[in-house]
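Our preliminary data section would be incomplete without showing what the modeling component actually yields. Below, a chain of 1292 amino acids is followed by its predicted structure, encoded as tokens that our downstream tools consume directly.
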Amino acid sequence: MNDTGSADVGKGTIGKSAQGRELIFLRVTVNVTAPRPLGKPMFKYVGNMHGNEAVGRELLIALAEHLVHNYEKDSEITKLVQSTDIYILPSLNPDGFAKAKEGDCFGANSASGRENANNVDLNRNFPDRLEIKGSPKTVEEELFIKGREPETLAIMLWIVNNPFVLSANLHGGSVVASYPFDDTTIHRECCVEGKAPDDTFFKHLARVYASNHPYMHKGNLCEGDNFKEGITNGAYWYDVPGGMQDFNYVFSNCFEITVELSCCKYPNASTLQTEWLANRQSLISYMQSVHLGVKGFVTDQHSNEAVPRARVTVIGIEYDVKTTHDGEYWRLLLPGTYSLQVSAFGYQDVEIHNVTVAEEGPTLLNIQMKRSIPDNPETDNKIYMEFGHHNYTEMEEILKKISESFPTITRLYSIGRSIQGRELYVLEISDNPGQHEPGEPEFKYIANMHGNEVVGRELLLNFAILLTNGYGRDNRLTKLVDSTRIHLMPSMNPDGYEIALEGDENGGYGRGNAKDIDLNRDFPDQYFPKKDYENFQPETLAVMNWSRSIPFVLSANLHGGSLVANYPFDDNLHGKSKVDSPSPDDALFRKLAKTYSYAHPTMHLGKPCHQSLAGRLLGVLDESFKDGITNGAFWYSVSGGMQDWNYIHTNDMEITVEVSCFKYPKAKDMMGYWDLNRQSLLEYLEQVHHGFKGFVLDTNGFPIFNASIAVAGFEGKSVRSYTSGDYWRLLLPGEYHVTASASEFQSLSKTVNVPSDGTAVVNFTLARVNVGEMIRLSISPTPEKIPTSDPVVPPPQVANSLSGQLEKLLKEKVKKAPNLLCLYSMNSLKEQPEHPVWVLEIGEGAAANCAARKQSVQLGTVSKLHQPKVLVFNGVDRAAAASGRSFLLNLVNILTSSEPDALSVVKSVSMHLIFDADPSAADADCMAVSNVARTRAEEALMQFVEREKFTMVLAPEFQSIGLTVSSQSGLKQFHEKQLADTYLQQLHKLSDCNRGDQKLSTVINRISEAFNGTVAMRLGLSCCTGADQVDAISSSHRVTLLQLFLSARQGIAGVVTSQFSQPLTATVKVTATRRTMISSADSLVVTTTRDGQFWVALPRGEYAVEIQAADYIKKTKVVTVSDGGASQIVIQLSRDQRVGGLPRMVFVILVGSLLLSLLTIVLCCCSCYEKRKAQRKKKSNQWGFQLLQQTDREHMAPVLIDSSSSDEELFVQHSQHQHFKMRTPVRAVQEGSVDSPFRPIRPKGKVLGARMGQYRDDTSSSDELEDFNSATSSSLEEEQLVDLRKSSRPSM
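Predicted structure:
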């Protein structure tokens, strides 16, 4: 691009020297006061870096005058000034120049002025490429600027903040053009080339200068010089670490060489004219080289907007230049044909072949890029970005849509539920989702911890879309997903979000969870711990369990309300704010925080948020943070914060990022927040691949779990190896002393060099500590056999002594291997027998299981799938009990060895050994003994097996060789027979023993019958062998035994939970399907453990698994079992809402309808009764004092009376009858009265038809009955009635 106009000189400064002198630069171009036109390359000359090398200083001043003076006079100068933005810095070291003396040709010390005022050589003061790699905006401050001089810092910032394309640094003391690199990894004094990727082009640049110089190209002008063509590789000449030309090439897009102008460093002024004439054309020709190669713009294909930070790479040259903010790029190249590759964040890579570079000028090549992550629904039929707010339901839909659209690289899971029952969703993004890949680091982002801080929630939803849509289309994103297991939790507090209000700038409504608890004050704190662990919120507990179950290396917690990256620690011993509280990894944390802040367009500026009226009143929006980062406690003290808990209790390094000044901004602003943060999210995630990593193995190559990796000087923080022995330790570049240690292994230390551009791999192989031969249990000789049918019982003190020895020995074993062994009592906690039956558990999870037995099961989550449990018991029937104890002790030695097959068992099976199930009883020979004590021991063992849910139970015996099948038929028998046949084949022995009068133990048969899903067999070791031969027996069975134990893994392992992930006690029924070549159609039935787990050992085949729990709907699942492994399933049962076989709602409606109908009938009856009562009353009132109304005879109620009953008794009986109101009976005329109009009627029977006050005998004739009715229908006179009522009223 050629501008027209007047050429002028502008002046500016890049900073000040150590003594305060301005570092002045001159700018020569057309329209110098106007901004640089797009596409116009920037060039710079720097002189007088060494204060006593003065020729360059004067030549550059002369050059500026020459350019301005000859503009529009000299076509070459005119074209150069019009097409180039030229910057000239005559003196980088004015303080040194002030000390230098004219005529000093060889000064090399501080007194000569070579160094700056602080006696530092500025050309040894830059960050060295071999120590630091990256951008000054992302490299930790201590590494990048610590120890740099003011002049060095000033020009470093000038270089990285401006798109210089070409540069030269003018020195003195020789006559030669030197090009990068200036040093090598071995830092030899001379004669070792440090080749840059663009070595050929750098040689060309050096030749351009040297060949246009009348003497330089000769290469021997100064004494001792011998430079072919007058050029040299810097490192080949002499090694210079920390030089400026290397810094330009590595840390910016600028190509720079170093030119030595004169043999004398500070010649007399009289020679300057000669030097000018010798260097003038070289200076001009070198500047013209800025127009070699390819240049252009990189833009968006759809919008034509600039694509900043795109990488332009020449295929075959391992160096790239990056586009400016306006999409400009310049790539210096020699004439020829090239292939270019362009890559940018969020865009598909572009490859352009057959790009021709001419000699006469740059090739203009504009490049358009197509987005790899479309955010327009019209261009993408799967997932597209939605900028706005999404409630819980909408968020759930987006996450499920992503998971369904990209099933091969994503997995959606929940780590628990909020108080109000909302899922705490996590989206995993990895090339192998659902599993930890050994050696691959794990990363997590958590957002929306405070419900009203919503920007992070939306950022993570879009970040998930970015990663998934970009996978396979964007090299950077693909590499990241392939090499990292990424976990994204958009909302840790979904309940708080649901009540938060859009437009809330700095409020607190919805900040806490459903109980209004601030979750970022709810974690265990190192200075102010909680007293009651149960008071932690479910969201907090879920995140804690999740963080402990996965070996996270790095994470960030996204908040809102400010703009800063906050790092640990969050509080201090006194809980005071504005007091810095650094962690042992303080420097690393500051680097991580700066990674996020400097990738953010504004965060690193550290400016306060825009103040609103609310902000001014609260005083919270006027904070400023240097570099956009802060120590948590120095900002304000927070007890119970999540980032501190992660650092102290896990391997994870976590920071807290405030991503927006506005907590709950308007939906229309969300796209802007995404643009501001997406680069930061990506660059911070990439930091998980820095530091060093490796594996901790034993001498057999097997992984060591939970080994400690400690770095000297970081005593407060060590990391632990995971199950595969892999570990990761984030560290800044440098040299460290690292020690790996593990229980029962010798520690090992190594010196580790952490590079600046990746991860060092450091593996540790630890040797097991030789603890000597394990102590064997001493058994007294068996007493002489007495000819009697009763067993020989030793004195009580002998049994007590034997039990005590066994207990002591087992406890000693546990002390030597606490992570591998656990000793516990077979008896329940309520039982405290005099001689407890001890069980030794051997396995990777033994220590954790030991701790779990001491506390109640916490329902709600299943932290880890159990291993299958195998029980080997001895001593129930006392047959060969001594030999059995010796065998089990040998088995402990086998399982705790470092042999690969033993380690495989320990890692995958939980072994439980009962050395003596009846320690109070005497030993016997190979024959089973029958007594009462054995029965008690059997019952105790049966209860133990039922409680522990063993997958396999074995009873060693010395009456046979091989496995004895205990099941009589069915699937279980098929499996046991298969195991028995395999055992004998591997053992290469016959199973025949002369059993004679053997009395076989029945306990294993009882276990087999009672526990249908447990493989229960007798393990025959030999034909009645003494204890002294047990070592040889154990050795002969060793390989076969270990294979048998491993067979317990093959089958189905599962977890049964409710729909709310609560473990359930369920019955699991396993039936072979028709596809399985097993003749039996019966089923194996097991019950789940207290935490909802089950494990069924099975032969290879396909099975129908039916799960049923009380009050839950039964579920069936078909599972295929392969050789050597377990098919793992998770079953969630829904609560059975049916009542009487009907759905609950239907039942409720039916019952309600029935009750309503009954109520209607009752109300109708009551209404009818009241109407009839009213009618009777009305009719009674019409007749005055009429006592009774005549009714039909059939309505007369029977009254049971005795013939001897008095009138009063008769009245009471009658008045209590339901059919009549109780009235006082009136006797019309006493019996025998002459005035009676009635004939006397005497009651002779038991049952009478009665009306109030009137009676008849059931023996009366029909005539008498007619007379009686006639008489009662007569009316009495009023006076007589009153008298009669008075005289006949019964006494109450």
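The chain has a mean pLDDT of 81. The two ends are 131 Å apart (CA to CA). Preliminary results of this kind motivate Aim 1 of the renewal.
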